[in-house]
Amino acid sequence: MYETIKYEVSGGIGYITINRPKAMNALNGQVLDEIYAACTEIEKDDAVKAVILTGEGKAFVAGADIAQMNQLDAVGGRALMIKGHKVMNYIEAIEKPFIAAVNGFALGGGCELAMACDIRVASEKAKFGQPEVNLGILPGFGGTQRLPRLVGKGMAKYLIMTADMINAEEALRIGLVEKVASPEDLIPTCEKIAQTIMSKAPIAIGIAKSTINNGYDLDMRAASTLEIEAFTSAFASEDKTEGMTAFLEKREAEFKNK
Q1: Partner of 31 at 20 to 30 A CA spacing, among 63, 144, 230, 248?
Q2: Residue ranges of the chain with pLDDT lower than 50?
């Protein structure tokens, strides 16, 4: 079904692997379409509780496909950026958690794809950067917006304006990633995180993700109102009844949608 990605489900985890190793997994229109299609499957499949997104070979995603972009005029470039934003926004909108397993180069569109995920775990060999200004352009898949929200405005300007490439430890220090693992432990570390999340109340996890995302840019009063409504929704769920009953009965909760 897919030509540029691999998608499989195992143990409740959906695995998306970008599979263009000869092109360093560069994002072109087809890759973006296929990631979006896989996300559509994920959203509809109740068997999938969490997602691990990674790249084949030595790159996570080394950037957008420059060979393709070089052939585009402003209208074509705009259409590609709109498609990229559609994919990144969809990953954020799906209530299931996405974990980026950054196995190597995450540059340009690759860094932007990782930032669209909920949690980022980097291999010790990973490299991050937004090198677009070297090409006479700027980040176009959300980098100018997500990067400052993760690392702060000043650091985002530094990384984007200098096109500096940083290693995994620096990415951890500035808050671009949440964990660093050895190359051999990268996927197991992501799987452990996914399994931990999957052991929790799925309704609460989904509502928490959407509440964090939707409230981040609101003023505190509006964000507090959003949280109250989200809490009310979770409080009315079967998961709440089971979770609190299990706690009082000193047993493990058996959530309906686990």
Answers
A1: 144
A2: 258
